[in-house]
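[User]
Um, tokens okay?
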Amino acid sequence: LGLFLNLLLVHLILNATRTRIGSYKYLQIIFVLNDIAYSSYSFAMQGKMITKGHTFTLFLTSRYGNNLHLVCIDASLFSLILVIVSFNFLYRYWAVVCPDRIQLFSTGWFSLFLVLIAFAEFAAWYCNSFFMYAASDEARADLVPEFAHKYGLDARTRAMIMGDYWRDGHYNAHPLIGLAVFCGILSAGFAFMMFCSVSILRHLSQGGESISAKTRKLQYSLFRILTVQTLIPLLFVHFDAGQVHILPSFGIDSSVLDWCSMIVSFFPPLDAIAVILLMRDYRETITSLFVCMFWNPGANHCVSSIFVSRATTIILNSERNK
């Protein structure tokens, strides 16, 4: 479902966007493509989480999932959501506060710079998972009953990343360092997004006559969409992953946490639905499509006409603005 809805959203972004949003359209496509990659990988690899005492573990239940590198990729993919959302906030911040800098998003060197930042963040998350969350033999032995009962797997041989925070009466340094890195990356991303949000709202509310009513309305609308796009992964991905990482370090054991992998799977479809409903161009296109399909006998012709009409409108608007 998440894959279908996000592919639909890509189609709408490319063919039904009449509002002038510049390069922001391509940032939205990158965000959606990341959702598609995350959805596809999660569906193929079937990542699961188990917590017990001071220990949490992430592993893959698919046929080909018994590979530590694939587990680390699974742990790192969702982290890209944070950095791509941050890029979207940077664009919105510049669009409102420093419009002259928007052109940087159309330059090759700046695009490459953003790609390098995303790659560095992914690599940091991957290395942190690989080196700091190594599974110990003692913790593996403790998890044998849970693995066998819930998934029919052998915890002693299954590839996994593990936060075994407390063992033999003392805390273990490596997973605690990994937890600090995890929290540091998340905190930096959230702090940047909070700064951009406050600056955007302050500028829009105090902009006076320097910002037209139409521009202010558009910027508020785009900021609202970005906020929802951020809150959905925050609640369904980062909050769940955060509690799975953090709570076991305090010895909080709850079987509810084992459902986090299922809760995380809700994120891609909900994110796509939110954007489609909040963006007027996409909402109207989907509404017209449903009206055509269910109330018009010539549905096939009607459906094609809708997208041709949308594409023609976009082309005419771009020609007028040249």
